[in-house]
Amino acid sequence: MYALYYSPGTASLVVHWLLIEMDLAHELRTVDIDARDHKRAEYLALNPNGVVPTLIVDGEPRYEAAALAMYLADRHPEAGLAPEVADPQRAQYNQWMFNLTNTLQAPLRLWWYPSDLQADDEAVRLGAQARIEAACERFDAQLAQHGPYLLGERLSVADFYLTMLMRWTRKMPRPAHDWPHLGAFAQRMKARPGFATLYQREGLSEWA
Ligand SMILES: N[C@@H](CCC(=O)N[C@@H](CS)C(=O)NCC(=O)O)C(=O)O
Q1: Signal sequence: where (predicted)?
Q2: What are the Cα distances from residue 161, in Å, to 67, 95, 152?
C-alpha cells in the first residue's frame, strides 16, 4: 500500500495517474498548498524540499516526481510501462525522462514560480517561455518522426510525464497542445480511462 501526498494538478499528478493506471493500492493525503501545508514542520520532515509529491513506500517517505514514476514502473514490471535495464530501449527511456525534467519541467517551474529567482518576474517568465517553446518544438519533431509515443509504438512512463508537463502549459501564450503532433499525442493520452478517473479524483476540469 502506497500513500501519496498530493495537491491537484501539480507534480504529484503523474504519480497519482500511474498508481491508477497500474492498479496499485494507495491512499491519498491532501497537501493544501494555499494553506502552505507543504512548509509545515511535519511535511518538511517527510520532504525537506517542501514540495509535492511525496510517496510513502514501505513506510518511508520518497520524493521527486520523475524518480517516483520510474520507481513505480520498475517495481511493477507487469504494467509494462518501462523497458527493463537490459532492454535496448532502456537508454532511450532514461534519456527522455531526464530530458523532460531538465528541458521542460525546469523552465515550467520558473513559469509558475518566477519568484524562485530573485529577479524581475516578467523577465523570468519570458526566458522560461522561450525555453519551453523550444522544447515543445523538439518533442513535436520527435513524435512526428518516431511517434506515436516517445519510444515509438511503446507506451511508457515518459508519455505520462510529458502529458503532465503539457498540461502545465495550458495558460501559456502558446500551449504545448498547439504543436500538431503534441496535440494529437495529448488527445491519445487523455482518452485513457485512467485520465478520467484521475480528473474525477483530483477534482480537475481544465484541459480535460
Ligand atoms: N523537483 C520536484 C518539484 C516539485 C514541485 O515543483 N512541486 C510544486 C507543485 S508542481 C510545489 O510543491 N510547489 C509548492 C512550492 O514550491 O511552494 C519534483 O519533481 O517532485
Answers
A1: none
A2: 11, 13, 15
- Ligand 1 centroid to 13 CA: how many Å? 11
Cell 500513500 identifies what position?
3
Domain edge (last residue) among 80, 106, 123? 80
Q: Let me know: does 159 contact 100? Beta carbons within 8 Å.
A: no
Centroid of ligand 1 to alpha carbon of 52 (angstroms): 5
Please say whether the beta carbons of 43 and 50 come within 8 A. yes
Contact 128, 111 (CB under 8 A): yes
The widest CA-to-CA distance across the chain, in whole angstroms, is 48
Task: Judge whether residue 164 has pLDDT over 90.
Answer: yes
Total structural domains in the chain? 2
Q: What is the pLDDT of residues 89-104, one digit of tens each?
A: 999 999 999 999 999 9
Mean pLDDT (the chain) is 97
Domain of residue 137, CATH code:
1.20.1050.10
Decide if 152 contacts 188 (C-beta within 8 A): no
85 lies in some domain? no
CA dihedral 109→115→118→124, nearest 10 degrees, is: 60
